[in-house]
Specification:
The structure holds two protein chains of two kinds. By secondary structure, chain A is mainly α. Helix content of chain A is 73%, strand content 0%. The longest helix of chain A is centred in the last third of the chain and has 32 residues. In chain B, helix 1 packs antiparallel against helix 2, helix 5 packs across helix 6 and helix 6 packs across helix 7. Among the domains of chain B are: 84 residues, Four Helix Bundle (Hemerythrin (Met), subunit A); 32 residues, no CATH class. The C terminus of chain B is likely disordered. Classes of the chains: A mainly alpha, B mainly alpha. At the A-B interface, helix 1, helix 2, helix 4 and helix 5 of A face helix 1, helix 2, helix 3, helix 4 and helix 5 of B.
Chain lengths: 141, 223
């Protein structure tokens, strides 16, 4: 691990290019859409990598100050969490990329559904979902 | 978990993802490709957990590995499982991919190192959300929830609009709308009425061909 500082980004770029290659080199339209999905997942991975802080934890606050526990055990646990928070500031990873990528995942599925319904209609009209055959038919017609 | 362990898990998952991705490209059975895409989503969900994005992870596992796979399988039931052999050499796409990847790797030189707490991305509103969201939004421990539903509520509303638009598009495409429907068969486009499928048309035309005793057809049109 010579330079871990940028390894994550490079690996994500490799995945992105795998998806991109599937998108531009395959003729099958379903395969293209799978490639698009791989590309999209790797973009999400890129953003999540930006949000990661080494030694951090998920952005869910460990001690919620609102409720005072009435059981003794809960009280002790609350105190422990309080002490933990007071002694060392807990490091949370950045929540903003996570929020943005939640939106991106859902939108990605919406585009996938739209693309697949286009594929279904193309199959009905042309009888094939291979792009080169479709182009040949269009040129012949 | 120590940092070294996190890094090892991270590297192993990324390598698994690369292998799965390449397997998706290489297989010519679309059913296998769809299953591998589901595996890809699930492994990436694991990677999101390692990178502390638990909300993204369970959304990816449910939506990416679940719903996407179901949608793809439904499509395969309609369009068939076979992918034909690639007709052209992969040299040009490979060249484009390598050049693009090279440009992107060149671009990473400017990116601040992975995981540093003082990266610019963590400086502005992120700190505010983590420190004050509990008081401002009202005792919601999950900061992602607060940001998604409150601070960036308009984003979420826009997302709903996008999903609605996609849904309208899918419905328009899949219900036979008022569009004139054309079907390509035996070298010509044929206009067909509503409710007539490609199979009906081909069967009808083959009947006519038999009647005229001119056997010109015979291109295999099976899916």
């Amino acid at each position: 691990m010579i330079s871990f500082a940028l390894f994550n980004y490079w690996a994500v770029i490799v995945l992105m290019m795998v998806g991109f290659y599937a998108l531009i080199s395959r003729d099958n339209l379903v395969k293209k859409l799978i490639g698009l999905n791989i590309f999209q997942t790797s973009v999400i991975m890129m953003y999540v990598s930006f949000g990661k802080i080494s030694g951090g934890t998920a952005p869910i606050l460990i001690e919620s100050g609102g409720h005072g526990g009435d059981g003794h055990g809960v009280q002790v646990a609350g105190d422990a969490a309080h002490a933990m928070r007071d002694n060392a500031e807990i490091l949370y990873s950045n929540p903003i990329p996570h929020v943005l990528m939640l939106t991106a995942i859902v939108v990605g599925v919406a585009t996938l559904a739209l693309g697949l319904s286009l594929v279904v209609r193309i199959k009905e009209a042309y009888g094939t979902i291979e792009e080169d055959e479709i182009t040949r038919m269009d040129n012949a017609a | 978990m120590t940092e070294a362990m996190v890094q090892i898990v991270d590297v192993v998952l990324l390598v698994l993802l690369a292998i799965t991705g390449i397997a998706v490209i290489r297989t010519r059975n679309l059913f296998v490709a769809v299953m591998l895409a589901g595996i890809y989503s699930l492994v990436s969900a694991g990677l999101f957990v390692v990178m502390d994005a638990v909300d993204v992870a369970f959304t990816e596992a449910a939506v990416g590995a679940g719903i996407s796979t179901v949608l793809l399988l439904c499509t395969l039931a309609l369009v068939g499982y076979k992918e034909s052999k690639p007709q052209h050499t992969p040299i040009l796409p490979l060249f484009v991919v390598i050049v693009t990847g090279g440009a992107l790797v060149y671009g990473t030189a400017e990116i601040p190192p992975f995981g540093e707490a003082d990266n610019p991305a963590h400086q502005n509103v992120a700190a505010h959300y983590i420190h004050d969201s509990e008081d401002e939004i009202g005792h919601i421990p999950n900061v992602v929830t607060s940001v998604l539903a409150s601070y960036r509520g308009y984003d979420t509303m826009g997302e709903t609009a996008v999903i609605f638009t996609a849904m309208v598009g899918v419905l328009l495409l899949l219900s036979r709308g008022p569009l004139p429907k054309r079907v390509y068969h035996a070298g010509h486009w044929h206009k067909v009425k509503r409710g007539v499928t490609r199979e009906d048309l081909i069967a009808e035309m083959e009947d006519e061909e038999v009647h005229d005793s001119t056997v010109v057809g015979g291109e295999d049109e099976d899916g």
